[in-house]
Amino acid sequence: MEKPDNAARTPDEALAPTGIAAGDWTAASVDPQYRAAVVDLLGALAYGELAAFERLAEDAKLAPTLGDKAALAKMASAEFHHFEQLTDRLSAIGENATGAMEPFAKALDDFHRQTAPSDWLEGLVKAYVGDSIASDFYREVAIRLDEDTRELVLAVLDDTGHGNFAVEKVRAAIEAEPRVGGRLALWARRLMGEALSQAQRVVADRDALSTMLVGGVADGFDLAEVGRMFSRITEAHTKRMAALGLAA
User: Fold this and answer.
1) Which of 117, 126, 104, 129 has the alpha carbon at shortest distance from 48?
2) pLDDT tens-digit profile of 60-89?
3) pLDDT tens digit sequence for 202-231
């Protein structure tokens, strides 16, 4: 998943962690509801990384040059390494990784089926926009996690290089054929709406995750903060559209 320079700001990122966020996994996992929330979070992330690996491998088949194909294959490998880190952690805490991922598979598969790109450029925009929205969401949640889980989550959200790659290729394509920009702008706006709706559905369907966001677990967000969180994600999306040379 991507971490572009203009990623959404993590709330209270300058403040010292408090509550569960100031402790380690051993202490935090005593709370069964918190443990369930983290297992859900790691499961969702793991399936997202596996899907990202599959998408990048497919996108590599559409790459117009051998250099582009090799670059995407390298990024796909990085995503699979992130997947392995997450499944290893789930196993280490005594959880079945496949079982943790299964509740999120249908929603993510539906999202990818509904937003299947029609060409190479749409695939680049989808990975840049869609993955970045997901990454912003997980970074917002990470501030509320215990230090061990937070460190892992932030590590697997590290940029694989796809963000800068996508910006370079999309801007070059628009410069060569300006009318491409209009089509890609419409595509990116559709992706934004679908990605936010999918994230909201996933959270709503999982009690532990929703509790983490709106209160009761890990010094959770209040409802007003949830609204501010999605506003920050939307603002970051607008900046990414500008980086691509597209109108939001």
Assistant:
1) 104
2) 888 899 999 998 888 889 899 999 999 999
3) 777 777 777 776 655 445 456 677 778 888
